[in-house]
């Protein structure tokens, strides 16, 4: 850049100002590149770029000397000062040069043409070359700043061409493809309001606006039960008797008093008079006003006010027994187990589970002493004992015909044992329990099928402690329950293929029991508060029963239409699956938590075992026609077990054909109750 | 009532009659006895009249019913007039049975049979034992499971025993101990195995001739099979014809298969006839006369079958499971049965069901009746075994048991007669025998 002398630059500026004043013919490009020297200014603008950058800011504006503000300056015209400075001292008006001197000075000074008088501050300002340029550019209608290019090449950010990648690299947020929760809440609110009639559709509003043409004038006369807006029920006043013939203005002659009656009436005390005397008038027009009207009204008001009116709310029942529903007598509902016939002794710890085989010949029991025992039902002989080493929580028979396989839930495994009673069953059962050709299941498998380490049978090693085993009626599938297994709480196993599967990806709540429907492809899963019924064919939830709290046991009626559930809330709930999700009957007969419930396969009987040491036997008749509700009659309380450490009867099972009940107790015995 | 007139010091005129031999007959005159007299008094009177030296007790029957209380009470209870002459029949009283012998076993005794001096017992360990004079003559392991019943074939068929096992088989066993000529210490041998049952066999009963037998099983069927000397002979011939090597191979194979002691070359027998009708376990069966089979079942029914045609002739439906049946051997067709209740039932199939006379109850046991055995010669006497650890001896002409035999310390499971000797076995692993003098 070329450095110029002070004077030469001033000359140039003057010329430019002249151009400006004379019409702006001057060449604008030449001074644009020149660097001005602003000797009369305190601030140096620096480079031209810096000047461009500073042009927006107000830093380059001169600070005002005067502080009077925006007041008309005429106010100070006749004063000796023009205002005040920051220190509140008067700024005195410059001494005016006379015109001649001013003209001379103007002609002498090279800067005269670019000097402006600032009236506010009362000083002369010499415009810089840059400021002149700015003024010139504004006059020409250009951008005030030199470096602003109005025709910059356009960057096409948003085109109509579709790009593969989004402009922002942020992943698509989840809310874009999730239904909005708030919208849903709002919709639910609206739906509820619509259902309850809080808001009305247009059609409804049209209907409701239609005024009835005629309405009953005395509609609320007879309403006794309707409540007032205060919430009190309205009791209408007793009605006054209607006037009779005697009160007529022209009564029949027999109603008219005789002379004596008239006299008697007049002589009588006012209190004793029985109503006004009958009088006859020839026409209604001549009937005078009733003189006692006000008195009678007043007395009636007093009567109503002083006489308390209440409604009887209690029902008086002469015979309380008539309120009790008529139930048949237990002796008409025989047979049912009513007396202790036999005890099966041998276990040394509480017996947790008991099961009877399909023929009714064998009984199997599992106990805390780690043993499973096989008993002959008729003689109470222990035929076989398997020592499994851990607590046996549940035993069950495989119901398949021709097989006699006992399944037991022991620790973390389900053990399948051939019962070994008789040659042929033995052979078939053994064949069914042949060890798998290849050890199925690696580390990630649900459970591992392997031959038992000591003796015959198979062992299904689970990953969690197994508490319950239940079989499908055909004996092909069985389900195991491991309550702590979370997503693997329920496993369904197939005996013939020796495979296991997990039917549920997730279980809602802690699964306690499962059961198969006796004939249909339904599966009952009892968690602590609910029983869910799944349709295995459709793979969908069919029904959810509200079972109260703390479900411990479950039994399905042989017809499959009814379920009984026992819980820790001491209740036995009977659910009719055709009716509702709430219990059809809730039976509270036990004083402690229930431990086992059972249906009889043939007789209309069911039983519940409880920690209070009692077993309740009920008659539960289910009728074939769908109109009659089941008949439930408690028939017997059986006591045979002692309570050991707050545990009483731990399980119960009915004999498949006889009306006999087997119970397993915490006192390490099994009892057989029969009908006598 | 008709018994009016029976007072404290009333004399009852009665006539003592009897069917006993001449030596025990009193002159047929009416005597007057006080109404408070009991059978002891009457017995003393007869002993006095006959001047019997060893005093013999008598029992007395009025209208076919045994007198168990004083005459007065009996007449009142049966509403018999005390004014007319009363016919009192007297018979020998059954004296209290005397315990004869006791045989300790290794396991529960579930089947017992006796002939002459030999007792055959079947146990829960599957072993058949032969006892003679209080000693074990032979011990043979026959069944892989418990033996549920044993039955002797009649003497003319030879010394043959049938055993019913829980391993679904019935075996025909030759027991030399029964043969007086043979060496008693010889082991019993299985001659034939009957295998058609599909579940545990509960009981067996041979026909009176001993050529057939019927077995009842938990598979709810009854099956008739041939047995007896002819089958035994065939088995022996087959065994003789079979070469030694084959026999050994067969024995080995069988041992490997079922894990049981191999019956040496036992003949396999097929069932001749199946009697089906029961819906549950046929728990007990009896074959009293050649053409009648009686069976009892857990389905609460007792059925009478025609042995020839295998037709169910008659059915009695009770209310409790039936565990045991016994039929009167001499053809009066009475059936005694007991089961899962405390009373012994006697059913008379000759009267239509529903009549009062068709069924009679004998209640005295305090637990289930597990076995019942009819006396082989007397039509009135029945022995019952019960889970209440007792045996009871009944005369069906009175509702009160004649005697209660205590001795077993656990459930009594089986009872059998041999002449006048009563044998019983039970869950206390003993067999006890009693002598009954009639």
From TrEMBL, chain A:
It comes from the Eukaryota. Keywords: Nucleus, Repeat, Ribosome biogenesis, rRNA processing, WD repeat. Residues 44-55 have a biased composition (Low complexity). Residues 1-71 are annotated as: Disordered. It holds the Pfam family WD40. It is found in: Nucleus, Nucleolus; Nucleus, Nucleoplasm. WD repeats lie at residues 344-385. SUPFAM superfamilies: WD40 repeat-like. Signal peptide: none annotated. InterPro entries: BOP1/Erb1 (IPR028598), BOP1_N_dom (IPR012953), WD40/YVTN_repeat-like_dom_sf (IPR015943), WD40_repeat_CS (IPR019775), WD40_repeat_dom_sf (IPR036322), WD40_rpt (IPR001680). Residues 76-337 form the BOP1 N-terminal domain. Required for maturation of ribosomal RNAs and formation of the large ribosomal subunit. Belongs to the WD repeat BOP1/ERB1 family. This is Ribosome biogenesis protein BOP1 homolog. It comes from Coccomyxa subellipsoidea.
UniProtKB/TrEMBL annotation, chain B:
This is Ribosome biogenesis protein WDR12 homolog. InterPro entries: NLE, WD40/YVTN_repeat-like_dom_sf, WD40_PAC1, WD40_repeat_CS, WD40_repeat_dom_sf, WD40_rpt, WDR12/Ytm1. It is found in: Nucleus, Nucleolus; Nucleus, Nucleoplasm. PROSITE patterns: WD_REPEATS_1, WD_REPEATS_2, WD_REPEATS_REGION. Its main location: nucleus. WD repeats lie at residues 194-226, 275-315, 362-404, 405-438. Residues 12-75 form the NLE domain. Residues 246-265 are annotated as: Disordered. HAMAP family: WDR12 (MF_03029). It comes from the Eukaryota. Belongs to the WD repeat WDR12/YTM1 family. The keyword rRNA processing applies. Required for maturation of ribosomal RNAs and formation of the large ribosomal subunit. SUPFAM superfamilies: WD40 repeat-like. Coiled coil: none annotated. Keywords: Nucleus, Repeat, Ribosome biogenesis, rRNA processing, WD repeat.
């Amino acid at each position: 850049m070329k450095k110029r002398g002070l004077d030469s630059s001033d000359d140039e500026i003057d010329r430019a100002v002249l151009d400006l004043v004379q019409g702006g013919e001057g060449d604008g490009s030449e001074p644009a590149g020149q660097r001005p020297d602003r000797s009369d200014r305190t601030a140096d603008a620096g480079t031209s770029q810096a000047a461009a950058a500073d042009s927006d800011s107000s830093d380059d504006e001169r600070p005002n000397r005067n502080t009077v503000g925006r007041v008309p300056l005429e106010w100070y015209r006749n004063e000796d000062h023009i205002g005040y400075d920051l220190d509140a001292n008067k700024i005195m008006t410059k001494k005016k040069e006379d015109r001649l001197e001013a003209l001379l000075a103007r002609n002498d000074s090279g800067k005269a043409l670019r000097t402006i008088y600032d009236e506010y501050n009362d000083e002369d300002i010499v415009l810089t070359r840059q400021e002149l340029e700015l003024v010139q550019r504004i006059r020409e209608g250009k951008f005030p700043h030199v470096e602003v290019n109005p025709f910059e090449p356009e960057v096409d950010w948003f085109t109509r061409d579709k790009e593969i990648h989004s402009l922002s690299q942020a992943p698509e947020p989840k809310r874009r493809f999730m239904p909005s929760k708030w919208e849903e809440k709002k919709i639910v609110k609206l739906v509820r309001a619509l259902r309850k009639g809080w808001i009305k559709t247009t059609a409804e509003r049209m209907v409701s606006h239609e005024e009835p043409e005629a309405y009953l004038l005395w509609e609320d006369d007879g309403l006794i039960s309707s409540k007032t807006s205060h919430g009190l029920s309205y009791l209408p006043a007793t009605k006054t008797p209607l006037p009779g013939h005697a009160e007529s203005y022209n009564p029949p002659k027999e109603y008219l008093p005789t002379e004596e009656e008239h006299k008697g009436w007049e002589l009588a005390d006012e209190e004793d008079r029985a109503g006004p005397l009958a009088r006859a008038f020839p026409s209604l027009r001549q009937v005078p006003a009733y003189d006692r009207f006000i008195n009678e009204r007043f007395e009636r008001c007093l009567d109503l006010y002083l006489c308390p009116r209440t409604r009887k709310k209690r029902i008086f029942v002469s015979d309380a027994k008539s309120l009790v529903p008529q139930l048949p007598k237990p002796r008409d509902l025989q047979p049912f187990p009513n007396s202790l016939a036999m005890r099966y002794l041998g276990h040394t710890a509480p017996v947790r589970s008991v099961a009877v085989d399909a023929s009714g010949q064998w009984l199997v029991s599992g106990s805390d002493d780690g043993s499973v025992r096989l008993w002959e039902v008729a003689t109470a002989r222990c035929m076989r004992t398997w020592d499994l080493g851990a607590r046996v929580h549940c035993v069950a028979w495989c119901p398949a015909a021709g097989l006699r396989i006992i399944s037991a839930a022991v620790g973390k495994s389900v053990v399948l044992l051939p019962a070994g009673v008789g040659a042929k069953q033995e052979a078939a059962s053994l064949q069914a329990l042949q060890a798998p050709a290849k050890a199925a299941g690696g580390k990630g498998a649900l459970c591992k099928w392997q031959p038992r380490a000591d003796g015959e049978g198979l062992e299904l090693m689970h990953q969690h402690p197994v508490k319950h085993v239940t079989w499908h009626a055909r004996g092909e599938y069985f389900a195991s329950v491991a309550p702590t297994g979370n997503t693997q709480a329920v496993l369904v196993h197939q005996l013939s293929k020796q495979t296991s599967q997990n039917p549920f990806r997730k279980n809602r709540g802690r699964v306690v029991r499962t059961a198969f429907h006796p004939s249909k492809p339904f599966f009952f899963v009892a968690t602590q508060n609910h029983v869910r019924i799944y349709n295995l064919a459709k793979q969908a939830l069919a029904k959810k029963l509200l079972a109260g709290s703390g479900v411990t046991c479950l039994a399905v009626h042989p017809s499959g239409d009814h379920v009984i559930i026992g819980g820790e809330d001491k209740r036995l709930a009977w659910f009719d699956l055709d009716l509702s999700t709430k219990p059809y009957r809730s039976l509270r007969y036990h004083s402690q938590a229930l431990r086992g419930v059972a249906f009889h396969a043939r007789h209309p009987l069911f039983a519940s075992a409880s920690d209070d040491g009692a077993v309740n036997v009920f008659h539960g008749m289910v009728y074939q026609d769908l109109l009659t509700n089941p008949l439930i009659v408690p028939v017997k309380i059986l006591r045979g077990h002692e309570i050991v450490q707050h545990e009483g009867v731990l399980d119960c099972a009915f004999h498949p054909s006889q009306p006999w009940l087997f119970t397993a107790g915490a006192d390490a015995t099994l009892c057989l109750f029969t009908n006598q | 009532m008709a018994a009016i007139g029976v007072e404290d010091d009333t004399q009852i005129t009665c006539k003592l009659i009897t069917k006993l031999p001449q030596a025990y007959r009193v002159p047929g005159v009416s005597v007057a006895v006080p109404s408070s007299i009991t059978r002891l008094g009457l017995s003393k009177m007869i002993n006095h009249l006959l001047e019997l030296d060893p005093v013999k007790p008598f029992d007395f029957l009025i209208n076919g019913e045994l007198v168990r209380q004083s005459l007065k009470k009996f007449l009142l209870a049966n509403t018999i007039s005390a004014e007319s002459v009363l016919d009192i029949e007297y018979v020998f009283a059954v004296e209290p049975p005397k315990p004869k012998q006791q045989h300790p076993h290794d396991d529960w005794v579930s089947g017992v049979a006796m002939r002459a001096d030999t007792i055959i017992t079947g146990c829960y360990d599957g072993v058949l034992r032969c006892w003679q004079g209080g000693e074990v003559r032979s011990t043979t392991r026959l069944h892989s499971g418990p033996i549920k019943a044993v039955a002797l074939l009649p003497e003319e068929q030879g010394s043959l025993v049938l055993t019913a096992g829980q391993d679904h088989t019935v075996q025909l066993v030759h027991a030399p101990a029964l043969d007086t000529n043979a060496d008693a210490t010889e082991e019993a041998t299985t001659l034939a195995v009957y295998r058609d049952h599909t579940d545990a066999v509960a009981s067996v009963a041979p026909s009176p001739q001993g050529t057939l037998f019927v077995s009842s099983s938990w598979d709810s069927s009854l099956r008739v099979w041939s047995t007896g000397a002819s089958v035994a002979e065939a088995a022996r011939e087959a065994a003789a014809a079979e070469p030694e090597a084959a026999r050994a191979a067969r024995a080995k194979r069988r041992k490997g298969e079922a894990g049981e002691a191999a019956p040496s070359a036992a003949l396999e027998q097929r069932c001749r006839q199946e009697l089906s009708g029961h819906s549950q376990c046929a728990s007990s069966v009896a074959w009293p006369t050649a053409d009648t089979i009686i069976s009892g079942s857990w389905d609460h029914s007792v059925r009478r079958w025609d042995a020839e045609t295998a037709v169910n002739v008659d059915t009695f439906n009770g209310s409790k499971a039936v565990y045991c049946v016994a039929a009167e051997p001499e053809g009066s067709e009475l059936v005694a049965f007991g089961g899962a209740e405390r009373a012994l039932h006697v059913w008379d199939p000759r009267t239509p069901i529903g009549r009062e006379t068709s069924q009679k109850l004998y209640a005295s046991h305090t637990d289930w009746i597990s076995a019942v055995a009819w006396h082989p010669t007397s039509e009135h006497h029945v022995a019952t075994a019960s889970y209440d650890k007792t045996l009871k001896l009944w005369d069906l002409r009175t509702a009160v048991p004649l005697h209660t035999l205590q001795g077993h310390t656990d459930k009594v499971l089986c009872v059998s007669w041999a002449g006048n000797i009563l044998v019983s076995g039970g869950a206390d692993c003993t067999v006890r025998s009693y002598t009954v003098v009639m």
